[in-house]
Amino acid sequence: MQPNTVEIPVDSHQAKIVPEHIVEIVSDSGEGAQTCGQIFADLLSRAGHGIWTVEIIPAEIEPPKRSRAGASGNRIRIGTEKITNAGDSADIVVAFNEQVLYSRIDAGALRPGTIVFVDGSWLSNSDERIVEQYRDAISDFRARGYHVVPLPIVEECLKYADDVRKGKNIWVLGLLSAIYDLDRGPAHQIITRRFSRKGEETAKKNINLFDAGYEWTLTHVEQRFRIPAKPHAQPMVVMNGNQALALGIMASGIEVCSMYPITPATSASHFLASAFEQTGGIVHQAEDEIAAVGFALGCSYAGKTAVTITSGPGLALKTEFLGLAVMAEIPLVCVVVQRGGPSTGLPTKVEQGDLMAALYASPGDSPKIILAPATIEECFHFMITARKLAEEFRGLVMVLSDANLATGQQPFPEPEFDPAWLAPPLDLSPWERGVKPFGWDEQTGLSRRPIPGQRGGEYVLTGLAHDEESHVAYESSINQRAMRMRSRKLAVLQSAMKPPAIHGDPEGDLLVVGWGSTLGAIEEAVDRLRAAGLRVSSLHLRFLSPMESGLKQIFSRFKNVMTVEVNYSDDPSDPYITPESRRYSPLAQLLRAHTLVDVDCWSRVPGSPIPPGAIEQQLRSKLQEASCKA
Amino acid sequence: MQGLKKDWDIEPVQEHHELKEYAGALPRWCPGCGDHSALNAVRRLCYEKQLPPERTVIVSGIGCSSRFPHYMGTYGFHGLHGRAFPVACGVKSRRPDLHVFVVTGDGDCCAIGAGHWVHALRYNMDMTVLLLDNNIYGLTKNQTSPTTRLGEHTNTHPRGAVIPPLNPLTVALGVNNVSFVAQTVDWNPAHVYATIEAAHAHRGLSFVRILQRCPHFSAHVFDAPLHDPSLLLLMEHEDGVRMEPDKAKRFPNRLMHDPSDLAQARTIASREDVYPIGLFYRNPDAGCYDDFTSRGLAQTQAEKHAAIRAAIDKFAIRGA
Amino acid sequence: MSATETAVSREHLRTFHLSGRGLDGLRPSASLRPALGEEILAALPPADSVTPAHFLGLHASCLAAERAVTRTRFQLALKQSVAHLQDLLAIDDAKRAPAPAEKAAASLGANAQKFLAVPRLIGAFPKPAHSLLEPARRRRSEAALAILEKALAESAPASWLFSTEEVDGPDGGRAVVCADPCAGALALCDRQLTEIVPVLRAMRVAALEASCSYDSSIHDEMLERFDWQTADPGEIAALPAIVVLETPEHLAQSSLTSFSRLLRSGRPVQILVRASGLSIEDLSGSIADFGTLALAHRGPFVLQSSTAAREHLMDGLAEMARTLRPAVAVVNAAPGLEAALLTFSNAFPLFRYDPDREGGWWKRFSLVEPNPVFASLTPLDALILSPRFRDQCRILPPDAPQEDQLELHEYLKLYKAAPPLVIPYLNAIDETGHPHRLAVTRELVHICFDRSRAWEMLAALATPPAEPRPAAVAPVPEASIREEATRLAYQQVLALLADPQALAV
To answer: Is C498 helix (H, G, I), strand (E, B) or coil?
Structure first.
C-alpha cells in the first residue's frame, strides 16, 4: 500500500482530455454521497456538460453501516455531448468505505481499470476486524484489476470539522471538482445557498471542506481529467423525471393530484405538495389507492380534470375505477411510475412490467390512451398532451414512466410556458338544448359532456351499460353501439399519428424496438454497432395505445425485429423453453399481435437500467445468430 | 345602521323550481321499499330549499339504494360498489358551489366501502350522506350484510348470520372529526324529512342512517318498533332534529339529548333495548377538508401563468 | 403636623365644611393617600396592570384580530369575483373567435407534433357549445370586472386613527390629527361606504353571472336599491376600521355635537374616550358622564371600563371590536391607584351595553357590581390622591371636637333628602405614614353624592323587571262557584231552621 501522505508533484497540464466519463460516489446511508453527487451534477450541467445521473438507493431507510446492502450514492455520467443514459462501467468510483463498494461490484458497475478512490482511514481504525476487512478488500480490489487509490478523507476532514460523517461528502466534492478541473466559484455559490439555511457558520465550514478537498487533490492526486464542455445554446433546466412530471402537471392546468404514497411515484407528489399551491393546485393524499383514483374521477366529473399518480401495486388497485373512467367517458390522467413486479416486487428498482396491466387490466373491453415518455423532458411535455387528450377524447389517458426516469437527472431546454397548455376555464353556460350527454359523433365516437352547474345538462353518470342519454340500457344493440363508439376514439387518434421516427437507416438487418426509459441506452448501442458497420436501426414508441401507425410496413424493411425491454421474458435456451412455450416480453407480445411479424425480444429484469454495452452485445449476437440461420 | 335592511339576498329565486324538476326516471324499486321514503324526502328538501338542480349532485355506489340518482332530476354519479365517498369528495373538492348528496346502502357503505366511509367522516367535507340500511343485500338477492342481525337467515348464512352486526352509529361516532350523526326510520316521513333537513343545513359531512325494510328479504326486521312505538327513543333538543310538537308527542318514549354531548351520544347509540332516532351528535366547529381542497380557486389566470413560469424557472441552470 | 395651632372648634369645622374657608394652617401637604383597610388593599388589583398607553394597543390588537380574517376573506372573495368574470369573458371570447390553428395546436403541448399530425387531430375534436353571452350580459360583466379589478389593485390601510394630537397608531394603520376627530372620522366613513357600494354591487353581479342566474327583471332593480346597509356584515367589517381617540375634556369643550352626530349616524366607527380621572369641570358643576351620554343614544355599543379592571377592559374591547355599530369605549385611565379607587367606589362604574344582544334591556346592559369588600370606599378616597382637591381638605388635629363627626361613607348613607347635621371626615395617611382624619368641604361631599345617584340610576337600569306575579287565588270554575253558593245557602237555611230565635228577628 502506498503511503497516502506523500505529496506527488502534480501538474494540471497532465489532465487527460476525455469525451465522457462515468463517476460514482458511494457511502453508507446518511453520509451525504447523494448530496455530493447532486451538487457535482449541478456543477457539471452549469458548466455546459451533458449529464445523466442515477441514484443509488438502499432499500432501507437506515441500513447497517459498512454493509454491502447499505450503499447509497449517485452515478453521474458526464460528456461533452448530450448524455441519454447511465452508460456501462464507471471510470472513477469514490467510496467512503470499502464494503459499500462491493454492492457496486455486484451490480457490475466496475471494470478492470476503474479508478477506485477509497477512504484509507479505516486502516487506522481501533477495531481490528475492520482493519482486516479493509486490508482484505483492498487486495481483492487490486486482484480484480481496479486502480485503487486510498485517500486520507477522515484525517483531512478532521482538520476542518468535528463530525466528519457530515463533512466527508463536501471534501469529496472538492476532490472531484479538482479532478475534473471545475471552477471553484459556482461550487462556492451552490454550497453557500444549500447550507446557509443551517446557518452561516455551517456554510463557511462546508466551503472550507470543499477548498481543502480541492487543494489537497491538486497536490496529491495524479489522476486528472478534462471533459470539454459545450455551453448550452439555449436556457436549460435540470431535474429528475418525477419533478418533470409534477411540473408538467402544473403546466397542464391540472389542479388536483390525488395519490397514495407508493415508491417510486411518491417523490413527484412530494414536489407537487410543496409547489402546487403557488399555481393554485392541491395534492390530495387519499386513504388508499382506490380512493385516490375515485377522488380524481369525482373531481374530473365535476369539470376539473385531475391526475392520479401511482406505481404497479397501486395500478392493480385502481383498475376498477380506471374501467369506470373508460365506460363513463370521464377525462382522467393516470401516471404510473413503474417499478419491479409482480406483487410488491422491487419497490425502488426499475422495470417496465406494467404495460400489460395498464392496457388490459380491466373487466371487459376498455380502450384507453397510453403514453410513455422516453426522456425526462418528455415526462414534462407529455403531461400537457395527456390532459388535453383526456379531455378531448373524453376518457382515460395513462402515462407510463419508470424508476429510471423518476430518479434520473438530465438537463433539457427550458420549456417556454404557453398559456394554451392550460385547461380552459370551466364553462358553466347552459347546456345546449337537444345535445345528449353521450351524443357520440357517428364517425369519431367523440362527444361533449355536461358539467355539473350547466343548466339543462343534468344527467346521471353510470358505470352500467348506457345509451346516449346515459340511461341504463341492457339492450344488445345499444351495448354494441356504445362499445363501438368508445373504441372508435382510439382509431381516430391513431389516424392522426405520424409513423415513428427511425434511428438509423430505414432498412437493414435488425430493427430494435423499445419504449420508455431505455431510449438512450438502445440508441447508444445501435450507434456503436452502426459505427462498426452493422446494419442496425432502432425505433422507440411513445404511444402504446393506440399503437403507433405504420409499424408493419417499417418492420417489413428489416430482416429481423426485436424488442429490448427491462422486463421478463423466457430465454430461448432455458430448459423446457420451446418456440411454442416461450413467453415473450410485453412489448414483443403486443407487436407480434399487432403486426403479425415474428418479433423477437431480449429483456432482463436486473432492477437497474440495462447498460448500452449489454444491449450492444445482445444485438451483436442476434445478428450473428440471424446470419448463421440465413 | 348596517344590517337594518335585510332585503337583499344573493340567491333570489330567479326561477322557481317545481317539485317535478327534481324527479328523474320512474323509481323501479319494489313497492314497499324504504328507498321511496328517502327519495321523497330528498326531492322535497331540494324543492323546499330550491336547490338549483344543475348544482345538485347525487353520488352513489352500487346496490338497490344506489339507483337513487337515476330517480332525481339533478346531476348524478352512479359509480362503483363501495366507492361513493371518494367520488363525492372529489366532486366537492374544487366545486364548493355544488350541493353534494351521497346515497349508500349497508353493504355499499359498511362492508365494501367501510374504509372510505371512515375516512370521509374524517375529511368532513360538506355533504349529506344517507345510509339506507335494510340489514340485507337486496340487489344480489338476500345475502348477509354487515348490519344483518345475529341469527337472521340469508342465502349466504342459511342457518343464520354467525357474527353480531356492526353498529354504523357507534362506528361513525368513534371517528375523530365526525360532525353530524343522526338516525331515522323510513315509516315516519315527517321525521325522515326533519332529519334530512337538519343534515343538509349542517356544514360538514352529515351522516344519516335510515332504518328501513326490504319488502322481499328483510320485511319484518323492524316489525317490533313499527308496531310498538315505545321501542323508538325520540331524541329531542333545540339544536337537534326539530319536529312539530304534535308530531313529536306521538312518540311515547322521548329523551332530551344535547347533540354537543359526544359521550352521551355514544352511550345512546350503543343501546340495544330501543331504536334511538334523532340527532346524536353535531359539531359545527369540526374542520372541513373542503377548506383545504378549495385553495387556489381564486387564482387569476395571470397569477397562474406567472406562478407556473416561476416554478419552471426554479430548475433553470445558469452558467457560472 | 404641629399642635401649636389654635384649637379647632366645631364652628371652625362647620364653616370650613360649608364654605371651604378657614383652617388654612391645616391644609394637607403634597402627599396624601386614603387609609385603606387590609382587606381592601388585598382586594385591589395590582397597580398599572394595564397602563393608559397600553389600552390603545389593546384595542388595536382586538380590532386587528377581529377584522384581519374578515379582510382576508373579503379580498379572497373579491379575487374570486374577478377570476369568475375573467373566466366568463374568456370563455365567451373563445367561442366568438375560435383559437387560431397554432394556438389550438399549442394546447397539445410543445412536442406533440413530433408524434401527431396535430391539425388533423384537432379537426376531429368535438365542437364546443355555441351559447354566447348576450350583449347585455357581456356589457354588465365587463363593467363589473373593471370596477372589481380596480378595487383589487387598490391598497387601503388596515385602519385609520383620528385624534387631536399625535399618537402612535397601530402597524399598517394611518393616523390623522385634526381638531374634531369625530367629524373627520364620520366624513371618512361616509366616503368609504359610498365608495364600497359599487364594488359590492359588482361582486353580486359577478356571483349572479357566474351562476348564469342574472335576471334583469329582478336584479336590475335590486341592485339599484342595494346600499351599504343591505351589504353583508362581513363586507362592511372588511373595510379599514376607523377609530377616534378623544378625551372627555376635549369632547365636552369642542366636539360634543359631532360626537353625538357620529353616534346617531349608525356608521361603524370606534370611539375611544380616554379619561384620566373624573372629568369635573368645576366643583359645583356637573360631571361629564360620556358613557351614560352614549348610552342615551341607545343605538351604539357602549363600554365603560377602567385600566384597573383588566379583564373587563379586555373582554369589552374584544366585544367592541366585533360590532359594526358606532361604538364608544369610555376608559378610566387615571394614573395608578386612582383608577382602581374611582372604579371600586362606584364613581366610575364598569358597564357594557350591547344593543345586538337579544332579550330585554337588562340583557343588553350589564353593570359590574363591585366586590362588597369595597363598600366603605368613597369617591373621595380616589380624589384626594389628586393635588387638585387639596384645597378642599383639612387635617384635623387630634384635639378637634369629635362628638358630631361621622366617617364619610357612613355620612353618605344618611345623606338622602337633606344632609345630616354632622361633619363628615375621611381617614387618610400622610407621607410619613401617619394616619389623620380629614375634614372635607360640602363640595366634595356633593360630588360623592352625585356619584352615588349616578350609580343608582345605572343599577336600576341593570335590574330586570320583576316577574309578573302569579294570581294569588286560582280562578274557580263557574260551576263550582254556583255549587258552593247553593251549598252555603242550604246551610244557612238549615241553620235558620235549627234556630227559631233567629227566625223571630
So the answer is: helix
